[in-house]
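Handout, page 2. Input:
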Amino acid sequence: MVTNRKNERLIYLVFTMPATIAFFLVVIMPFAIGIGYSFVDWDGIVLNPMTFVGLDNYKRIFTDERFIASALHTLIFTLMAVVTINVTGLALALLVTSKLKGSNMARTMFFMPNLIGGLILGYIWKFILSDTFRSIGETTGWTGVFFNWLLDPLFALFSLVVVITWQMAGYVMIIYITGLQSVPDDLIEAAKIDGAGAFTRFFRITFPLIMPAVTVCIFYTLSNCFKIYDINLALTGGGPANATELFAMNIYNEIFSYNRYGYGQAKAIIFFFLVAIVTLTQVALTKRKEVQL
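Output:
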């Protein structure tokens, strides 16, 4: 019996070792090295010397107006995007799970934007929101709505929300569909017999029962919206006047544009812990709302 257990442990070790080694080399080791770089002043060039500055890089962050502005932009963008993505995704899930003809085709169409790369998606929408909108405005005279959104700081941020919603809503729709299909039909039928309306059935029965799906979707959208870079780069490039420069772009520019490797790495560490704290707090709060049958 003891020999069998030892053999099982050896088998587990053999099969998990490659993944463990890869995770250590690709994630743990670079992260640890990055923490070390955050305490030095370095331009990223191997031949140039590093100067140990201790916590000075972290202290600079709290007086960096551009980083604080990017943090505010990221917060506003993330709050708007998480709401619009989840509301749209849930609405689409309710639509395609209803008695709608061609629901399978609708699912495919709604999911397809998620298959398009962020850079390509950003360039496509850049053409739509700039040239196409301007042409429509000039033709119809509705220049108050149809103009180059990317030249206005507020509308440029809204543009990012629109594009990320268009890309991710179809993905979260699939998760919500799984949650909706797990709701027992007899509960819905019993509520109908008791005279509960559609809104009452949804908010009193369906929504509490799909809270596990809500937890997953909010976690997914929250973490991805905080980390967005490719769409930000392709659609607005951080403009106009850095009005849409989000967290990831600010860190990238600090390291690769301004050659402040140590300072940029300190920003990345702060960014990592901020995202971790927010997402873990969200998971803890939403899990409390889950209902067990």
